[in-house]
Design a protein that fits this description.
Trna Endonuclease, Chain: A, domain 1; 2 domains; alpha+beta; elongated; 21% strand; 259 residues; five-stranded mixed sheet
Length: 259
């Protein structure tokens, strides 16, 4: 390279140093200002307090989860796949947590790496909220199950129901069976193309055996499915819900069909 790397490094250090400042907030606490922001422009908040033995604690004081809770159900970060991802984030960045506050204990000389580690963790925790919008397959089925049990008592829900009229019935389980007003209600969660094709096969077999049932298809993202796949499924399926975000629609349709 023809670029003067030493000069480049000095320029970068000067610029980055100008982006990070430490300002006093009280007698026992200082605030670390960085250029990092949430998507809405709200700045990440990092605070410094002294610990015995000359150590420092760098903490977000719970601000990250509080900020995310305005538009997300952060309780879900403690369950299922999201909880595993959160624990992995903390392990990989070597960040600890105390009652919702993320922190790193460090010496003054290691403060800079600590800032980057905690900031990286906060970025990744923020990314967990995308699971709500994108409905990653692993969380879709957890969320569907949770939502159904809010609407129907658990003892009235049969999960992975086997309809014995079908050939090789064990290979074609029905996600949920709920007793309906006029016929059993079979509910299917559909997170991807493969599941859509499997549900199409199950419904075709049920129709072939003239089974008595109604069906409700709930998609992670109906618009993401290939049109031919969705068309074949629509030909044999009953009512449909485009995504779990349509909570009122799900509640209304299930209540209308329940006994």
């Amino acid at each position: 390279m023809n670029t003067d790397l030493q000069q480049l490094q000095e320029s970068l250090c000067k610029a980055l140093c100008g982006e990070v400042r430490v300002v006093p907030k009280s007698k026992d606490m200082a605030m670390v200002l960085t250029p990092f922001e949430f998507a809405d422009g709200d700045a990440y908040q990092l605070y410094l307090t002294e610990l015995p033995g000359g150590l420092l604690r760098l903490s977000d004081k719970g601000h990250t989860l509080m900020h995310l809770s305005y538009r997300n159900d952060t309780d879900k970060f403690r369950n299922g796949t999201r909880a595993k991802l959160l624990e992995r984030i903390k392990a990989e960045t070597d960040v600890a947590e105390d009652d919702g506050a993320f922190y790193v204990d460090t010496s003054p000389g290691e403060l800079a790496p600590a800032i980057w580690r905690l900031s990286k963790a906060m970025v990744q925790v923020n990314d967990l909220t995308f699971l709500n919008r994108e409905r990653a397959e692993s969380t879709f089925y957890e969320d569907l199950h949770e939502q159904l049990l809010r609407l129907v008592p658990e003892d009235q829900v049969q999960r992975n129901y086997i309809h014995e009229a079908l050939e090789d019935a064990a290979n074609y389980p029905i996600d949920y069976r709920i007793e309906g007003k006029h016929a059993p209600l079979f509910i299917f969660g559909i997170a991807n193309k493969d599941k859509a094709q499997l549900v199409t096969i199950i419904l075709e077999r049920l129709k072939r055996h003239k089974a008595d049932y109604e069906s409700l298809l709930i998609f992670a993202d109906q618009g993401s499915l290939p049109r031919p796949v969705l068309a074949r499924l629509s030909n044999v399926g009953g009512e449909q819900i485009a995504s779990l975000d349509a909570q009122d629609d799900i509640e209304w349709k299930i209540a209308r069909k329940r006994a």
